Amino acid sequence: MPNSYKRVDAHLSNLGYCSRGEAKNFLKMFRVCVDGVRIFEVTKKFYHNDITVDDEPLDAESLVILMNKPSGVICSHNDAGVLIYSLLPIRWQRRNPKISTIGRLDADTTGAILLTDDGALNHKLTSPKSDVAKVYEATLAQPLKGDEADIFASGELLLNGEKKPLLPAKMEVLNPTLVRLKICEGRYHQVKRMFAAVGNRVIALHRVSFGDFSAEELMPSEYKVINLTKNIK
Ligand code: URA
């Protein structure tokens, strides 16, 4: 776990407690203490772990969050509409570096999504080399024809406009218009395009899990901080 040594105003502004300019006032309004002794000097340097605000430890320096994404929110920092970040506490929304989603789900897709302010982790888990398994439940407009599982498992399916075939994916039939699909890559609109490639259409999409993390015990919009000490699979 990081435990950085820097100015109090940098700690407070990086973690979203206040802006750098507001730090002086923040120290007057809240009991910011180091080893139990109240401080008023914004320029002094301390270790993150030694600082408390009104007797509470500072928020963690690095956050990984698991959310059950509801339909209608957007995984972007700058598109029009309701952004997924608006579901997080205001303080987390003001962190620097920013909290970002690890990959994206479409606005109408629901389910498990991770968010973090750890850029290296985000990069690692979204790089084309990452093989984190993602499991989706897709509701289809038309009943299955019967050859979809074989086509998806073949490792030969080409999505419209692409030259590289998809890696093999595993499809399980839950009923004629509902499937569970496990994929290990994350191409743009991948699941919807896979079903378009076999002449069908996804009318609802839910991500059951991302690696080991499932959001099934969370209500839509609910989230929790998770510990990513082990390698995500
Ligand atoms: N595939 C899609 O088509 N949409 C998503 O949101 C995720 C995977």
Structural features, described:
The structure is a single chain. The chain is of the alpha+beta class. It has three domains: 5-57, Structural Genomics Hypothetical 15.5 Kd Protein In mrcA-pckA Intergenic Region, Chain A, CATH 3.10.290; 64-128 and 213-225, Pseudouridine synthase I, catalytic domain, N-terminal subdomain (Alpha-Beta Plaits, 2-Layer Sandwich), CATH 3.30.70; 134-210, Alpha-Beta Plaits (2-Layer Sandwich), CATH 3.30.70. Helix content is 17%, strand content 28%. The chain is built from six helices and 15 strands. The strands form three sheets. Strands 7, 8, 9, 10, 11, 12, 13, 14 and 15 form a nine-stranded mixed sheet that branches. Strands 3-2-5-6 form a four-stranded antiparallel sheet, with no helix packed on it. Strands 1-4 form a two-stranded antiparallel ribbon. Strand 2 (32-34) and strand 3 form a beta hairpin. The chain is elongated. It starts with a strand and ends in an 8-residue tail after the last strand. Bound molecules: uracil. Residues 105-106, 109, 189-192, 205 line the site of uracil.
